[in-house]
Write a structure and sequence with these properties.
Keywords: Dioxygenase, Oxidoreductase. Helices cover 19% and strands 32% of the residues. By secondary structure, it is an alpha/beta fold.
Length: 138
């Protein structure tokens, strides 16, 4: 199982202001639309997201949502403080790895992003980490 840094999610009370900052000050730009996550609007688990990139790593700027855990039914809330995300080529192996290490996690499946199987867990300081794999939902 291989992990590669995919994106950093920052939560904000003012996504448009964050978007302007990262575009104007850090000169980040748009990513290829085919590389953006297809947010599952049907579930209402993620609000209006801004996506910016340096060409390699995406930043997802999302509205801070302290009640997301209640709506999603998952204990780990990736929209309260944000998270760092890695992409894997084997989500089942990584999930087993977490279990072997005794690390509790929330398995979101593809609830928030269509075609991405996501799991979220906390590091020792309470920072949220996402690991996801692109999956075929046919």
């Amino acid at each position: 199982m291989k992990l590669k840094l995919h994106h950093i999610n920052l939560c904000s009370a003012n996504v448009p202001e964050m978007d302007r900052f990262y575009r104007d000050v850090l000169q980040l730009g748009d990513d290829d639309p085919t590389k953006l996550p297809p947010v599952n609007a049907d579930r209402g688990l993620v609000g209006d997201v801004s996506f910016v990139t340096d060409g390699d790593i995406q930043m997802h700027l999302t509205p801070r949502d302290v009640l997301n855990s209640f709506r999603s039914g998952h204990v780990v809330n990736p929209l309260e403080r944000g998270h760092i995300a890695y992409r894997t080529d084997d989500i089942a192996a990584f999930r087993q790895h977490l279990e072997d290490k005794g690390v509790p996690y929330s398995d979101w499946g593809s609830d928030a992003v269509k075609g991405w199987h996501q799991i979220f867990f906390y590091d020792p300081d309470g920072n949220v980490i996402e690991v996801h794999q692109i999956v075929d939902e046919d």
